[in-house]
What does this fold into?
Amino acid sequence: MTAQAKLDTTEKRLMDSLERALFHHRVAVLMLFTLVSLLLGYKALSLHADASFTRMIPSNHPYIQNYLRFEDVLRPQSNVLRIIVENPRGDILDPAFLETLREVTDRVFYIPGVDRGKLKSLWTPNAVWSQVTTEGVRSGRVIPDGYDGSAQALAQVRQNLVRANMLGSLVANDLRSTIIRVPLLDSDPQTGQPLDYGALTQALEQQVREHFNAKGVNIRVIGFAQIIGDLLAAAANIALFFAATVVLISALLLLYCRCWRSTAVTVLTCLLTVLCQLGVLSLMGFGLDPYSILVPFLIFAIGISHAVQNINLMVSEAAQGHGPIEASRRTFRALFIPGTTALLADAVGFITLLVIDIGVIKQLAITASIGVFVAIFTKMFLLPILMSYVGVSRRAVVRQQTRARASWPVFRRLAAVVEPRLAIPLVLCSLVLLVFGYQGRQALQIGDLDGGAPEFRPEARYNQDNAYLLNHYTTSTDVYVVMFKTPAEQCSRFAAADLANQLARQLREVEGVESVQSLYDTMRFNIVARNEGNPKWAELSRDAYVMNNARSGVPSEQLDSDCSLVPVNLYLRDHKAQTLNRVSDAVEQFARQHGGGPFEVLQAAGNAGIEAATNSVIRQSEKHMLVLVFVIIALVVLWEFKSLKVTFALMAPLYLSTVLCEAVMATMGLGVKIATLPVIALGVGIGVDYGIYLYSRLETFLRQGLDMRQAYFETLKTTGTSVAFTGITLALGVSTWAFSTLKFQADMGLLLVLLFVWNMIGALVLMPALVALLGARKPA
It folds into this structure.
């Protein structure tokens, strides 16, 4: 007996054992699934939305490692909210408005998660002015202790704002609004748990925005935490689209199979898969973050994709005269191996996302993989048992018998793609498409390509708030922090200051950098102030005593406690990928030119610096992820079909779809980032299902002695119809996402539509053409 024959015998024995164990104990199987479902459903009720700043950043990247070393100093420029308080009836120098501003500051101060020691507002003690006079340096609080709201006091505040140079930074250029800078802690000081951005932004919404908007001022909030909070708040919108998609797919499924019992059982089984997935996540202590909240729909889509194959074959068996139990057994026997292989391929596609060292993507990979493994049990074991009880309607059987007698002229013509006269031109056209796809994808970039928060539409509240800030303030919200490291107590030495000045001068020349600020700007001002304001002293001194004296009294965020770290803050025009790349490259070039001494130039912190690190990780990991996806899925297919030619024929259409998808992303102006990167891996994992089911059925007919064209025609009549239906149905389902208020959901929906349709066409047209040309299988 050959090795292949032994393998086939082992496979047959395994199938016999599984079939007997499953169908001889149907009641026990149903009771087990019921018990597990109730337990996991109960746990799913405690699942919560979850988002963390540390999971959104690549913690092992060198930039982030540098940031974490000096987090206490750098946090105010990295994880910070800017609350804009606007007076719509005039400027901020109004007694009623300033009193309201004080109340806003007090409310924000007591919200859990706020770094209260570094909170900055016109009312906080760290909002100070200083002035050089003939008598020396004078300084004080912007809103003095004796402020009483009188005209004289307001005139004093106006003068203090000018002295403090706050116009354009903490106060709007038109004096109609002011900013409260709110640095955030990584954990809630009351619970010790990671800071809950949903709870934080909800508290801001209720206690600050809604409360004070009702008092006649306008509140706007900008920052990473607010982006996450708005995404979590949009969960209801996502759930609405999920429900609409379920209803649409259910209606199309009923129209396809003409059996309400099969439709109801299929949809309920798919929903049960999602419910169990959420229960397992809760058991493992995970939550749903904004970027993985769409995964349950993908699991539902995968379930529908496989369940349609089950219904299709079940109806075919019933049309041949088999009863519900026998038809279900034969369906189980025919679909278990290809179905399980396809689901394993899906799981592999998700698991490969773990190579991307960003916590939120890793959690997405785990979430999706759990869903696929749950689907193996619900689709491969539970669904056949349920179908053995409910069976299929007589109407569905009659329709199947009518279809079996039909001539299927469209499928007869489509089956001709396996003949060389059509297969060769088709493959050549695919190669041309591949070339165009390669050309188009050259423009694909990493990171954000739009201003504001690309997760939202331009008209969204957050982007409108961000646009207001950019239009009324000079200082940018996109801050890139370079860390200038010196030996302890050496940061104020002239050698260190001179090198930092060279760095600042060089970075000011980089396109996209609007201004550069650091400790040494403050020290230069202090030196002038301590020398009667004489501009001749507006330079750093070689005298250590002068430099140390100039360092005294500077704000704590400008250096660390032992004078060994100085943050150099770069205020950027935007956080687009090209801008961040230019800045990062310029800093790296400077560090290489001046390396080897006692001073180090380290990257990077600030919201823009962290985004640069994220882009770097995605750039390095994207190719590795795609290679792993294709290699591992190809190995799964090779293990199933034992043929390199078949493996190539199944994988080639998926690769073409991926390249075309990347070309479309480049054309649409979509960068590769956290929100879009997983889509390609998901598309490859789901797309391989079509080819596996089609080829499994084709191989069955070839073994029965049919020639290639007739075998493929019979395949199209059975599995081909369900593949076409699945691709079109899932594409229609996700097309509804185009109406979402979330731009990233709409973008993901469009990309998934393209992948579903292209993968379906590739499996129906290109895959059989390649199989025929390669001679992957000969008739038995």
Notes: The first helix runs from residue 3 to 23.
